[in-house]
Design goal:
Distance between the termini: 13 Å
Radius of gyration: 39 Å
Number of helices: 33
Strand content: 5-15%
Structural class: alpha+beta
Shape: extended
Low-confidence stretches: 459-467, 731-741
Largest sheet: 5 strands, mixed
Mean pLDDT: 85
Length: 820
């Protein structure tokens, strides 16, 4: 094929491309690489499959998609000018009003067409543009799947199967000369609809009501229902072919007539230029950074509080997986947030690998060993860990509370929350933030319009979620970015910008000065409370959280000391003297006397009662205390009985007995089988080592340059093997596997002689080869060495050096000279 000969097939068009162009196709459509095609023909076949074309169409921007839709309703093949006219119109309806829009379309169309060509959706020269057949079928109109352009079938398609008599009636009503040839009749009717002058004259005679019917159909859908006795306006349109029957009750406006009414435009509003993301506010970047840093610190505190809440073993896992609605409500109440926000924090901790299932028979959620490592990091490094886990995560907390395709509720940490589009949407939203000036907060509506332009929805979302899942993902991204401290007051922070563009170390360095320094002291008050005027150092915060309950949060945290909280500290192994020393060392105010009395009072009674396993027993040296317990009505459910003056036995397990007596106002302590007091320490339960959940990719990953180069070389080599001209062994003339797919056949002696000669001259030959599994293939090889019944050669088909057994070579033929 000469360089000026236009391609006849998509394979020929791809074969004429350079290596960089083929690599661009494989980069844009990585699904074509799995597995690597054997040659260009197989690549073209795979590029035309329905699944691959659908995936390619879903990744087009709106104007590239509009260009493909216009080609789907254009003649096949279509000249460039025809395509341009379908996108701009003929200019006879609005005069100069559409000049600006037409200029924008004219300027943008070459790039859109180049995108379609690069992705092998369009091929051919500008004079003969062809949309691949599968894309035309997907975008072409039908009663079941109307065209995105709202256009119906052509006159020829709509009149297929119509009787000649009916065609003659339509011609007569439209004032066209009669013809007995149905093809000529259809052509005459189509010519009428495409002739603006004659069409205008015909419509001038139409009743006003008929024009109203056309107005309702012109921009789609073009199909309408009619009764057996249609109204006069509909009958007038039907008699003149402006409405053609599809069935006994359905008519359609033919494409040629609709295009006349639209002034030649395939789309009501072409969108060649992406919408601009408008700014809703411009703030001081330093204010934005401080606001984002404050929210980042809150995020760290919230995740830490959540995992501390589940330190001793979290909620049970549902049989179907995930967290129950009741447990999510309980978690939201403990964190003092709404349930959707609680679901976000739970999912974030899970994505970061800080939370997982423990794998026990009674499976529960619990912190992982990675949580302890995370706690040892600096605050800024802990934040970057969370942010980098959030960016690529495919789990979508916003879906919690909704329903799947089968009507089942979606639960937090459940198995149905992965959406592969989430990371791409998340990063694109943040990229649009980053394109604005520092401190600029974008308008969410214009941002959504931009996202819809870049990736128009084609109804690919899972059932029950609507057709615009990407818009919902974008809105969730805006909320989650604010919660996590990626944005502050609606604008992208400097530390987040650095995280996206430069990496974690730079982001952590920018965030560190903005975070509050942890304090080593609290302020004790006489009302049994302690005020922490800022974040506390970790050892101080850990001990204080055991000794007191958090009463309120905010700029300062208020802790309250109660008998239960003091007992909790004693249960953890602290002595009263330890607690007094701790408070004196970390309080900037004197230790109030009521607090000292509270600690001493609880410590004096702590362990006076002992709980062990009988099922359970209560042991106390003071018989009066045991008599008091037996007499208390609240102990009835424990089924207590006296075994000895100082021992009671119970049918309840030790844990339940311990909690019941505490609720009755006693301060019991658990003991071991040896009689020693059991110390319960918080944070003792951890899952085995767990890896974070793996994101679910959206299709094949984008190949790197090395893989693309190797794939292109392999495809080229395979194409050479499939299309190279060879000498016919029998006649000495040229032949090609494209016309003869059979393997070459030669005797063993001829095979050996030909291969040895090729090794001596360094030339390539064509062989047929049958491998150990019995699979036959044709290959182009350049023999290097022939010995011991084997041929070592460079295999052009596989683009590597291989060894071939001589007895498995069915035959060999020399390649023809170039130009023969």
């Amino acid at each position: 094929m000469g360089t000026t000969t236009p391609p006849r097939t998509l394979a020929e068009a791809l074969r004429a491309r350079g290596d960089e162009s083929l690599a661009g196709l494989l980069r844009a459509r990585p699904d074509l690489l799995n597995p690597v095609p054997n040659d260009i023909t197989q690549l073209a076949t795979r590029a035309g499959t329905r699944a691959s074309v659908v995936r390619a169409l879903e990744h087009l921007d709106r104007f590239a998609l509009q260009t493909a839709e216009a080609l789907a309703v254009a003649p096949d093949p279509a000249p460039y000018d025809t395509l341009l006219s379908l996108l701009t119109g003929d200019g006879l309806d609005d005069g100069e009003q559409r000049d600006d829009a037409g200029a924008a379309v004219t300027a943008a169309l070459p790039d859109a067409l180049a995108t379609l060509r690069e992705q092998a959706l369009v091929w051919g020269e500008d004079e003969r543009l062809r949309l691949v057949r599968t894309a035309r079928e997907l975008l072409a109109p039908s009663p079941q799947h109307p065209s995105p352009t709202g256009l119906g079938p052509t006159v020829a398609e709509a009149t297929a199967g119509m009787s000649p008599g009916r065609l003659q009636e339509i011609l007569a009503s439209a004032g066209l000369p009669a013809t007995h040839d149905p093809v000529s009749a259809v052509a005459a009717l189509a010519a009428l609809f495409t002739d603006r002058t004659r069409m205008a004259e015909l419509l001038d005679t139409a009743p006003v009501e008929a024009l109203s019917v056309l107005d309702r159909l012109v921009w789609g859908p073009p199909y309408g229902e009619v009764t057996p006795n249609p109204t006069p306006p509909v009958k007038w349109l039907r008699d003149r072919g402006l409405l053609l029957p599809v069935s006994t009750r359905t008519v359609v406006l033919p494409r040629e007539a609709a295009l006349h009414l639209r002034a030649g435009r395939a789309h009501r509003v072409p969108e060649p230029v992406p919408p601009v993301v408008a700014a809703v506010a411009e703030r001081d970047p330093q204010v934005v950074d401080r606001a984002a840093a404050g929210q980042a610190f809150t995020a760290l505190s919230t995740v830490e509080e959540l995992l501390k809440l589940w330190n001793g073993g979290g909620p049970a896992i549902l049989r179907a997986g995930g967290l129950s609605v009741r447990e999510l409500k309980r978690t939201a109440t403990a964190l003092e947030v709404s349930e959707p926000i609680a679901a976000f924090w739970v999912e974030l901790a899970y994505a970061a690998g800080l939370l997982a299932a423990d794998g026990e028979s009674d499976e529960r959620y619990a912190p992982t060993p990675a949580y302890d490592e995370w706690l040892d990091l600096s605050a800024q490094d802990r934040w970057t860990h969370l942010a980098t886990a959030w960016l690529p995560a495919t789990r979508v907390p916003g879906l919690v509370g909704g329903q799947d395709a089968k009507g089942r509720a979606l639960s937090a940490l459940g198995p149905e929350l992965d959406r592969s589009a989430a990371p791409e949407v998340r990063r694109r939203v943040l990229a649009l933030f980053a394109e604005l000036a520092p401190g600029t907060a974008p308008d969410p509506e214009t941002l959504l319009r931009r996202l819809r332009w870049e990736r128009p929805s084609r109804g690919s979302a899972p059932s029950g979620e609507g057709t615009d899942l990407r818009s919902r993902l974008a809105l969730w991204t805006l909320n989650e970015a604010e919660l996590l401290g990626i944005t502050g007051r609606g604008a992208l922070s400097s530390q987040a910008r650095a995280l996206l563009e430069e990496g974690e170390e730079t982001a952590a360095a920018l965030l560190a000065p903005l975070l509050p320094e942890p304090l080593d002291h609290v302020l004790l008050q006489a009302d049994l409370t302690a005020v922490a005027p800022g974040p506390l150092e970790r050892p101080l915060a850990a001990t204080l959280s055991v000794l007191a309950d958090v009463e309120s949060k905010g700029g300062a945290t208020v802790y309250r000391f109660t008998p239960g909280s003091v007992r909790r500290a004693l249960d953890a192994g602290q002595a009263a003297t330890d607690l007094h020393a701790f408070l004196a060392a970390h309080s900037r105010t004197p230790v109030p006397q009521p607090l000292s009395y509270l600690i001493d009072d609880v410590a004096r009674r702590h362990g006076h009662l002992r709980i062990g396993a009988a099922s359970a027993y209560v042991r106390c040296d003071d018989e009066a205390v045991l008599n008091e317990i037996l007499a208390d009505r609240r102990s009835t459910g424990l089924r207590l009985r006296r075994l000895a003056p100082t021992v009671l036995a119970s049918q309840a397990d030790p844990g339940s007995l311990l909690e019941a007596l505490r609720e009755m106002g006693y301060v019991p302590a658990a003991e071991s089988a040896e009689g020693d007091v059991l110390i319960t320490r918080a944070g003792a339960r951890r899952t085995p080592p767990r890896t974070p959940p793996t994101p679910v990719p959206e299709g094949p990953p984008t190949p790197d340059a090395i893989l693309l180069g190797a794939a292109v070389r392999a495809i080229r080599a395979g194409d050479t093997a499939a299309t190279v001209i060879r000498k016919d062994p029998a006649e000495g003339g040229p032949s090609s596997t494209t016309s003869s797919g059979s393997l070459p056949r030669t005797t063993s002696a001829e095979t050996l002689a030909t291969v040895q000669a090729a090794a001596m001259t360094g030339s390539a030959v064509w062989i047929g080869y049958v491998n150990a599994e019995g699979a036959a293939s044709q290959r182009v090889i350049a023999p290097v060495r022939v010995e011991g019944g084997f041929v070592t050669a460079y295999d052009h088909t596989a683009d590597e050096v291989r060894t071939f057994a001589l007895h498995r070579i069915t035959g060999v033929a020399e390649l023809a000279e170039d130009g023969t």
